[in-house]
Amino acid sequence: MRKIVIFFAFIFLAQSVNAQLFSRERLANIETFDNKFLTWGYFLGFNSYDFKIEYNQELGNANTDVIVEPSTGFNVGLIGDMRINKYINLRLEPGLYFTQRNLRFPGFLDEKDILREVKSTYIHIPLLVKISTKRLNNWKPFIIGGVSTSINLSSNENNPEDNAFGQFRTTTYTNYYELGVGIDFYLFFFKFSPSIRGVFATSNELVPDNSPTSPYTGNINMLNSRGMFINFTFQ
Length: 235
Prior knowledge:
Layout: H1 2-22, E1 38-55, E2 67-70, E3 72-83, E4 88-92, E5 95-104, H2 111-114, E6 115-132, E7 139-152, E8 173-186, E9 191-201, E10 220-234
Antiparallel strand pairs: 1-3, 1-10, 2-5, 3-4, 3-5, 4-6, 5-6, 6-7, 7-8, 8-9, 9-10
């Protein structure tokens, strides 16, 4: 599913850029939009979260590694944009992100022991710097990056039950850095901006099981989220 979403997103971008580059129409839409000090908007999009796992020991055997199965989730949120100068903007993009990852642990026979579903509902709050090129007709490429934090509303960090009771626990708060690219398209009434962004956690999200020799968390040193966002912004 993730590859399909990425494929269609890039096809859309390619077609839009082609239309802007080779169209004979040269009338500039919403010419003074970027002169505003503050602008507002919203975004819709897709996400795909993964886990990067660092083990306490280098086991050297793929059959002993935890298998992470990501899925495609949904994003929705708001945008506050502050103009610094002609090419640089500061952005706040608080949003709600729904996602799920399945962890499959080796060494068990029953599916109920092998599978752990990690469902997450994040309030994701990034502070981003957007660096744009010069506007070309009705489009303008940009790169975007910054730092962010999230609150997992589905976290079971304080749950006294661990994997012995079927509960894989993760922390409530996570910090990240982000980097992405996109294109602003200036339409007749508004600005439309598709973008793709990578998100990488810098804090350990693992809540170890109560037993230090747990077959689930005993050999895991760090658990860090990695994500990819495809957002469609309307301003």
